[in-house]
Design a protein that fits this description.
Length: 157
């Protein structure tokens, strides 16, 4: 089961707000895709939350775009920032990337983001959102959301 950002944010608004803040704190994040041979590829990426979607924009024929065209599965990790503070915790999103070729949608995105032309544009279908953080300098807390289920929270000392 997959869902877009808007549906996730409606189901879990507090977690969605935290995740957006973590991604909004820095410009560049890490995207993991699958190479042709199935091995992982990690690359830098900028992301945008617009019109209820999480968007991935890429340079033409970049290896990550070609990876996603071949196998749409991805993992995206927010930039942890400098030092060890990681205010808001470590956040990761997993899902599938769907390339958008519709001229009207691409045009609205380009008006808002002003990417260099030409570009690949992917909207995301979420399969998992994870936040990990330390609570009271004592507990490691992991929040896991999957479509169709509430957030599951695990605490460890």
């Amino acid at each position: 089961m997959n869902t877009n950002w808007e549906a996730f944010a409606a189901a879990e608004p507090a977690l969605a707000k935290t995740v957006e803040a973590r991604f909004g704190a820095y410009t560049h994040h890490v995207l993991a895709t699958l190479r042709r041979d199935g091995s992982p590829r990690t690359t830098g990426l900028e992301v945008r939350f617009l019109d209820g979607e999480l968007w991935l924009g890429m340079m033409p024929d970049s290896l990550k775009a070609l990876d996603l065209r071949r196998d749409p599965r991805f993992a995206l990790q927010a930039n942890p920032g400098e030092g060890t503070g990681m205010g808001g915790g470590d956040v990761r999103i997993g899902g599938r990337a769907v390339e958008v070729e519709d001229a009207e949608t691409r045009g609205r995105y380009a008006e808002e983001v002003e990417p260099p032309e030409p570009f690949h544009l992917f909207r995301t279908e979420l399969t998992e959102v994870v936040r990990t953080y330390v609570e009271d300098d004592t507990y490691l807390v992991v929040q896991v959301w999957k479509p169709g289920a509430p957030v599951r929270t695990l605490k460890r000392t």
